[in-house]
Amino acid sequence: MVDDKSFRDVLGRWVTGVAVITTVWKDQVHGMTANAVMSVSLKPPLILISIDEKASMLAKVRAANNFAVSILSSEQKALSQHFAGQRQSKETVDFDWFMGWPVIKNALAYIACKVHDARQAGDHVLFLGEVEHLWARPGRPLIFYQGRYHALQDMEDKK
Ligand code: FAD
Q: Cα 75–77–80 angle (5° rounding)?
């Protein structure tokens, strides 16, 4: 029998980056912090995201049938907290536009996708995204480990 605490505790030992998923529905941009993002296939280029069935993002990605992933830099912890609903500020967020998709300004990388497939998986929905456009810049990623944010200390900056 697997209890919630053990599940979170053990899976929290898997180090991830942090991203903000964005989409537009009815002329409104919506963003959500996510670390369940993975590369799936090169031919065709597919990635996977996982959205909680309680998240308001779910209906928006389903309706828009597309989404963008902005991989956050080490300076963007506050934005991760904002898009996880953990900050009570009323701040407005400036989005950039990347090939028609809304993305987070000054993020490390952008991945713009059309939904290729969607599957219910327990209390989440998995979306396979077919990658239409990609972009990245040099810099340090924001890291998430055991429920906390970290930065890479010993990373050499790569062009
Ligand atoms: P809301 O709670 O409505 O929105 C989230 C926040 O974003 C709100 O504060 C809202 O004001 C703000 N926001 C949205 N759009 C805009 C806009 N256009 N301008 C300004 N602010 C805006 N959940 C998952 O389902 N999958 C994951 O992979 C995942 N990974 C996570 C990783 C980390 C590190 C953290 C901290 C959380 C993660 N979560 C994940 C939880 C998820 O981010 C939260 O549950 C989130 O609040 C769900 O968002 P929502 O779509 O319900 O939208």
A: 130
Q: Report the chain (159 residues): mean pLDDT per 10 consecutive residues.
A: 95 98 96 98 98 98 98 96 86 90 97 98 98 97 97 74
């828009």: which residue's tokens? 64
Cα 108 to ligand 1 centre (Å): 19
Distance 136 CA to ligand 1 centre (A): 23
CA 109 to chain centre: 11
Alpha carbon 66 to its chain's center: 13
